[in-house]
Known about the structure:
The protein has 2 domains: 31-81, Chitinase A, domain 3 (Roll); 93-152, Nuclear Transport Factor 2, Chain: A (Roll). An 8-stranded antiparallel beta sheet has the order 1-2-3-4-5-6-7-8, covered by helices on one side. The protein has 3 helices and 8 strands. It has helices at 2-24, 38-47, 99-108, and strands spanning 30-31, 55-59, 62-68, 74-79, 85-92, 113-122, 125-133, 140-144. The chain is of the alpha+beta class.
Amino acid sequence: MKKHLLLLLGLVLALQMPLLTACSDDDDDDVATSDVPQAVLTAFAAKYPEATNVKWEKELETYKAEYYNADHNEVDVWFSPDGTWLRTATDLLPTALPEAVQQYVATNYPDRSIDDCDLIEIPGASYYLLELEKGGAADLYLKLTADGELIP
């Protein structure tokens, strides 16, 4: 009887293993470069010729390129399927923010620290997206221009 229970348990575990590994894969939106539309690849190469080791993802109806720039910052770039550039987000260290942005935070939120910051570039504009944290309080998100002006 004990042998049968062990055999049954082993069989159940063996059958569950493919399900467990399939559920743990969080990269199911990754796409091979060969599956990215040529218009997107061409537009990306023209806009970011220095990019290497690019990984692609498909998010809804857009294509996102991920790579690290020369400053070792992660850069995410979104394109529509026809190759139209939509947005770029570059991760930054808080010390890389413009002085006016750092000063705005220090003056207006002296009890919070910058947890995450990105330079967001969209057609015709750019801004800094900041995540401010304070122990136990909800995170606060701000959009600021390079001049330290708050964007509502």
